[in-house]
Design a protein that fits this description.
Helix content is 60%, strand content 0%. By secondary structure, the protein is mostly helical. Helix 2 packs antiparallel against helix 3 (52-77) and helix 2 packs parallel to helix 4 (84-98). 25% of the residues are buried.
Length: 133
């Protein structure tokens, strides 16, 4: 645990000369948003249906639809510019995020005990009076 805390501290505290996470064009942000939306949607659909392909498809389509919707309203409400590359990065993030369902294992339904079967072979104890002669 101490190693994890030290590594996390080093990674956060010291600045490196690597490429920044957030760019001027916003592509990583769109990719991350698509991955979060696609991952959450596919996980919810997989828990409801148990079908991995359906969950992946719904996650990918939801992330892409959110990207298209954001770019459609961007000029009117957010004073931005429409950019098809933003939509593409959101969709790619959705593909990656929705892929979270593939390594998941199908849960077996919890077995409930059959109470009537548990008491089927009841033991009956009979007490007989003892004669004290």
């Amino acid at each position: 645990m101490k190693k994890i805390v030290v590594l996390l501290f080093i990674g956060v505290y010291f600045h490196t000369n690597s490429q920044p996470i957030f760019s001027e064009k916003g592509y990583p942000e769109h990719f991350i948003a698509g991955a979060l939306i696609g991952g959450a949607t596919s996980y919810i659909v997989y828990n409801k249906t148990g079908n991995k392909f359906k969950a992946w498809a719904f996650g990918t389509l939801t992330a892409t639809a959110v990207g298209v919707l954001k770019e459609a309203i961007d000029p009117e409400l957010l004073s931005g510019v429409r950019n098809s590359t933003d939509t593409m990065y959101t969709g790619l993030g959705g593909i990656v995020g929705a892929s979270i369902v593939f390594p998941l294992k199908k849960r077996k339904p919890k077995e409930t005990p059959n109470i009537s079967a548990a008491f089927k072979n009841e033991i009956h104890l009979e007490f007989q009076p003892v004669n004290s002669d």
